[in-house]
Amino acid sequence: MSEEKKSLNFLEQIIEEDLANGMPKENLRFRFPPEPNGYLHIGHTKAIGISFGLGIKYNAPVNLRFDDTNPAKEEQEYVDAIKNDISWLGYTWANECYSSDYFQEMYDWAILLIKDGKAYVDSQTSEEMRIQKGTPTEPGTNSPYRNRSVDENLSLFQGMKDGKFKEGEHVLRAKIDMSSPNMLMRDPLMYRILHKAHHRTGNQWCIYPMYDWAHGESDYIEQISHSLCSLEFKPHRELYDWFKDNVYGYSKETYPLVPKQREFSRLNLSYTIMSKRKLLKLVEEKIVSGWDDPRMPTISGLRRRGYTPASIRSFIETVGVSKRENVIDVALLEFKIREDLNKTANRVMAVLDPIKLVITNYPEGKEEWLQAENNQEDEAAGYREVPFSREIFIEKEDFREEANKKFFRLKLGGEVRLKNAYIIKAESCTKDENGNIIEIQCTYDELSKSGSGTEESLRKVKGTLHWVSMKHAVKAEVRVYDRLFLHEAPDAQKDKDFMDYLNPNSLEIVNAFVEPSLQNAKIGERFQFQRLGYFCVDNDSTDNQLVFNKTVGLRDSWGGN
């Protein structure tokens, strides 16, 4: 029986219609066009997944193009991070391109637009231009410089390029329609003066193209068939087409294919901000340790926290492609990493809040190595040996002197099984001068060893606890992360700054003990700490100091299920 055919999303339908209407399949070409002014975040993964996913589906090339038109905010560090993130997600680009590669060609086209009376140099201040542009309900008014002669415009534009003017003294604008209902069509800026070195072109240029001009013409030069972008660019489509249609007349022999812009909804995630400007503020004000802080929604932050490429790709596939904006619950992302790590992460034992437990009838000085299954979800994962001795650590919260019948952990007079080991019974406990329990005394049933096949080993008790042998325990720093923001939509509140919703308890550093099998764990390795959650080895780990990041708990503690 053939697998049920998956229905096409609306972007795939557009492409199928274009192919049905005669577009050669070999003309299909896509791109992912980040601006190198920050690190990629989880919101970008949707655009990445759409463009590269279409490339895979249609066996078409996908360019990675950096729209690097603003040297004031762009850095090589961001270029390198973006390439690293996309590769880590498992995607391969056909060509690595830069809008800065096309600066000369775009400049030449701007000259032709000036000669055709479709662009002019404006010398108003930015405030004068803002007022003159009108409002969404009132038309704009023409600039007093709108009707400069072609020769004057060419002379001024050449002077701008040659560095003869200060920043803000002149700009180049397209001459379109100051009364257009679409304010983006009211003589938009094409070039501004910036006396700043570019990370690739150095000081070769001191005029830089505006995003709307550079983005569309870069698509055109690269002969992108379908320019796919998020919904906020829908009002820009009219301008995208105006630039494209006017330039096409100059270069149709060289670039015969005309790109088509189409928009999809952005990925918005609860309890998360997606603005690179606001994420940069968190970095600059040292609210977080950097762009790759595990609390950040950046791809590098998620990677450091322990997320896998497979979990993020599955998340994007589940979210799907739509035309309407919506907010995705961050719990879906957390579910996806749990789902993936449940299959792939080895189970180990770690105690984050330790209390000493002594098995009084276990021989002093004796130790034994018990067999423990690495991952019951993966038969190939095999087994490891875990040391057991008279004195062990358990979690403080796993013991109470007295408890009701719903408490299935250890209480005085009660029994539990130690994972992979024996059934123990709590007999007494020791307290300090403040009444805090500092030690628990237990006895064990020596015939109840897990897997031994004895009648006693098959006896059922309701609770099973994880533990670590004190003698063999390895110290580790564990960083327990919570959500960075306490509000579901931290940057959507008009009367409050997003910083007001920062969670003061988003990071707790715990001095824990882990089983000795983790002594040689490698940076980036992921584990399930049994009964606690999923953790990975942080970049800060050294041979002398293990550091783990908590990726996610075993269940959604916020949703209550």
UniProtKB/TrEMBL annotation:
All residue ranges annotated as the tRNA synthetases class I (E and Q) anti-codon binding domain in the record: 464-538
Protein name: Glutamine--tRNA ligase
Biased composition regions of type Polar residues, renumbered to the chain: 134-146
Glutamyl/glutaminyl-tRNA synthetase class Ib catalytic domain segment(s): 28-342
UniProt source species: Polaribacter gangjinensis
EC number(s) from the headed UniProt entry: 6.1.1.18
GO molecular function: ATP binding; glutamine-tRNA ligase activity
Top-rank lineage group of the source organism: Bacteria
Top EC class for this record: ligase
UniProt KW keywords: Aminoacyl-tRNA synthetase, ATP-binding, Cytoplasm, Ligase, Nucleotide-binding, Protein biosynthesis
Protein family according to the UniProt entry: Belongs to the class-I aminoacyl-tRNA synthetase family.
NCBIfam families cross-referenced by the UniProt entry: glnS, PRK14703.1
Gene expressing this chain: glnS
SUPFAM superfamilies documented for this protein: Nucleotidylyl transferase, Ribosomal protein L25-like
